[in-house]
């Protein structure tokens, strides 16, 4: 500016024109925190304000440019802007016309993570249908984490407390820094090839930047392709990493991940004890039922006193035998009388018939005689059969086959060795007489006697 200009005062409009020409002629890149956002349907531009600790500035970005950037502006977000100042002289106001917009610092990292998450989700890597169930009682567990720090000790302590039967394969890796993703991928491969049935991928808390290795695309795809389930417990922050999203199970802390991976031995012991109690109670009920049914069978007269059961049928059998004895001679006599009468009639008729009729009558007489003899034979066989059955049912018949009946000194039958004792006098009925004896000792027979009803 010349000395003449310096000595000549400018009008307000001249000053604003000077400012406008100076500011609008240059392109500026700046960084600021978003404090206000106004993006409404129908607007031709997006309006927002950026600030730092000492100043704030209104910004405007044409809607076609804003949408092409694909950024969801939020209050508090750190952004990097490129554009130029615009001065509105009538009102003395200044705006920043934004040409390009991007997240800055952590905001840029978050934007990249969000973009990767959307892309992997579109490929189906985060679908619930592809997530696998964890083994109920794993024998070998892979643990991929830093060998230092609290996380590894928390996980090992939890696994040993809850499920000490498992073997733990520890792959010590870096969990922070640019080399961490490659080491974690290698650690997953090592524990899986060593026979792990499930893999724990854990680390302690940290900032968003510290957790960036778990937002790595190669690691995410390795977890998705892992042949065994993967459980993550990454940090204590509310942020969810991409590794969490593609894992089969996600826990908020390393300890929670270990608890999700194995059962609690104390809970299993309580469950087993309860099951054993139920089985014992059911067995007791069944045994009592079988005992009751066995006692009921043993108390039946046919088993408790078989001779008395036989005696119940003796009288009806005697009655039937008597009837048969009386009926057979009478029937035979009646048949004989009938035959004699027929014979008399035949002889009377024969005298008046021709020789031919006589021969026919003789033949008829022969057939009648044969029938009479057959009837006599059937009656004899029936009588003998019934007599034999009566003999089989008689206790004397049982004795005749070599068995014996033992009675105590009161005359009662001895059914068990429990009803006598050494010194008891007994009488033994055999086929041809009675033997008087005295019990010297008793011995239990270990063989089990099974009733005919139980053999059915």
UniProtKB/TrEMBL annotation:
Give GO MF terms, alphabetically: exodeoxyribonuclease VII activity; nucleic acid binding
Per its record, the protein catalyses: Exonucleolytic cleavage in either 5'- to 3'- or 3'- to 5'-direction to yield nucleoside 5'-phosphates
The answer, when asked if Cytoplasm is one of the entry's keywords, is: yes
Q: Which Pfam families match?
A: Exonuc_VII_L, tRNA_anti_2
Does this entry carry the keyword Protein biosynthesis?
no
Assign the protein's first listed, main location to one coarse class: cytoplasm
Q: Where is this gene product found?
A: Cytoplasm
The processes (GO biological process) annotated in the record are: DNA catabolic process
* Domain Exonuclease VII large subunit C-terminal stretches: 125-438
Q: What is its EC number?
A: 3.1.11.6
- Summary of the function given for this chain in its UniProt record: Bidirectionally degrades single-stranded DNA into large acid-insoluble oligonucleotides, which are then degraded further into small acid-soluble oligonucleotides.
Report the family membership.
Answer: Belongs to the XseA family.
Which protein is depicted? Exodeoxyribonuclease 7 large subunit
